[in-house]
Design goal:
Two copies of one chain form a homodimer. With about 325 residues, chain A is an alpha/beta fold. Chain A contains 15 helices and eight strands. The first copy, chain A, folds into two domains: about 200 residues, Class I glutamine amidotransferase (GATase) domain (Rossmann fold); about 100 residues, Homeodomain-like (Arc Repressor Mutant, subunit A, Orthogonal Bundle). Chain A has a six-stranded mixed β-sheet with strand order 2-1-3-4-8-7, with helices on both faces. A two-stranded parallel ribbon of chain A has the order 5-6. The model of chain A has no long low-confidence stretch (mean pLDDT about 90). At the A-B interface, helix 1, helix 7, helix 8 and helix 15 of A face helix 1, helix 7, helix 8 and helix 15 of B.
């Protein structure tokens, strides 16, 4: 018993129950039904939930010093990732990192690792919808927002919510082999390996169109199915192409062409989900001009094909 | 507020934290990040966790009478599905059913609905590894063990563990449309629609080969790659085909041919997961005689093709 791998799980104010439950299920006591799938007297991991008394959770909470002493530290997501964190948690994580402990962040847990100062030089991921906040807060940490999870050696991170299952299965595979991870996947009824990454689940987060270009952007959205170039938009807006290019980047953070492609992919996604149009019809309706162009841009930004996307996000009979 | 749809969730001794967390996430308060994906002032559901004080869980527990009064009753899985249940829970479920409430069981929660006596004439599913127990306990309830979830009108049931997410997304789609369910799926980073059903996650649960045929079964397992017919096995075992057929069914519950096919599919699965053999080589090694025969039987029993199965359960570099 004493030499089981110790997994310390940080339970903070606002910890996401679902992330926490995934980690507890992957590493903690096996439910009775698991023994039918794989005879195993006990989990190869010994888990400890660490946090301050009073944080509502399932299971007893132990002091943060036990987090600092764990072989693997797991930090589940928290509801408000930008909120100030208890210095005791950040300290425990830093001590564990110093000792060489493996560090796992789930979903917004990457922010907590960031505030603990242990992500320097590391590559991580987090919930796709938090990517902009993460980059703003930790400009020197490499963010792989398209990945379901990232294994960067000492630091491992998963994307949003149930991507935690993908990361935990990856850790079980690393520690105990593919067959072991497959059996846990059979218990969870969740695939041991998902294709296509996190980006197929993302969508453009609409920010209100403000700034002086707002009317131009509105007009572009209404004419996405037409050819939109710097030149044609500048003509519509009565600006020089140079002025438009400069102001476009200043106000949207993107080039005009990148912005147009992003919006066209988003339009294509909506039509794949909600319409009965064929992929070719959608290519034209979204302004791609050809099916090939749609496929190429869709794959680049979503990690999957238009057809596979539709199969996942649209049911024939709703 | 008062007219939000009320979801009552039964929290019992041994309730699976993961199932509970999925239901809470799908129906309960939306995390801050959800508002970026979909502006929504509050969840359209009002959830209540109902259970006896002292059951460890997250969130306040309310009396079972509130479960009886809910519009939708959710029963998450429990660690020991065959354990005796608190009569108060069973009564509350029966009262809710009588009132016409929608009933959702997650994983082993189907057993609790069964003991509450509300499954008569219904079609449900449960964790694939509990299928035999379920059939033995509730012989008159139709069990669709291959399905990730079943929507049978008033009663809806999901298979093992994370199939709960599939069912909850289905309910969101039914109640609030595909676009709503898709946005929840983007929050969860979990597909709104999975193909292939639950059976691709299952495997043959090995029971010790006991009974007088044990040596024969052992011999068959060692010769799966050879033609195995009632006649050839009977010759090996020095029995008449009629005696063998009768004893085979009595001891295994299956015909000899069904048993052989099941074991061959299992052998093919193992080789797809663990070997570098081609699908054709695996077809022969598992005794199918042809790739076509492997494909047909594999699809029938796993709901997926050998190639797709390998892509999910085997990573090139473990």
């Amino acid at each position: 018993m004493a030499d089981r791998h110790r997994v310390g799980i940080a339970v903070l104010g606002g910890t996401t129950a679902l992330d926490l439950a995934v980690a507890v299920q992957a590493f903690g006591r096996r439910p009775a039904v698991f023994h039918r799938i794989r005879p195993e007297p006990e989990s190869p991991y010994e888990i400890t939930l660490c946090g301050r008394a009073g944080v509502p959770t399932f299971g007893e909470l132990r002091p943060m010093s036990e987090l600092a002493a764990a072989d693997t530290v797991v930090v589940p997501g928290v509801d408000d990732p930008l909120a100030a964190r208890d210095p005791e948690v950040l300290e425990a994580i830093a001590v564990a990192a110093e000792r060489g402990a493996r560090l796992l962040s789930l979903c917004a847990g990457a922010f907590v690792l960031g505030y603990a100062g242990v992500l320097h030089g590391h590559r991580v991921t987090t919930h796709w919808a938090l990517a902009d906040d993460f980059r703003a807060e930790f400009p020197r940490v490499e963010l792989a927002e398209h990945e379901l999870y990232v294994d960067d050696g000492q630091v491992l991170a998963s994307g949003g919510m149930l991507a935690a299952a993908d990361l935990c299965l990856h850790v079980l595979r690393t520690d105990h082999g593919q067959a072991y991870a497959n059996d846990m996947s059979r218990l969870l009824v969740s695939p041991p390996h998902r294709t296509g990454g996190q980006s197929q689940y993302s969508k453009v987060i609409d920010r209100p169109l403000t700034g002086s270009l707002a009317p131009v952007l509105e007009w572009m959205l209404a004419h996405l199915d037409e050819p939109l170039t710097l030149r044609s938009v500048a003509a519509h807006a009565h600006m020089s192409t140079r002025t438009l290019a400069r102001r476009f980047r200043a106000e949207t953070g993107q080039s005009l062409l990148d912005w147009v492609v992003m919006r066209r992919v988003e339009r294509a996604r909506e039509l794949l989900e909600e319409s009965d149009l064929t992929v070719t019809q959608i290519a034209y309706a979204a302004g791609f001009g050809s099916t090939e162009s749609l496929r190429r841009h869709f794959l680049l930004s979503s990690g999957t094909s238009p057809g596979a996307y539709r199969a996942t996000f649209r049911l024939a009979a709703g």
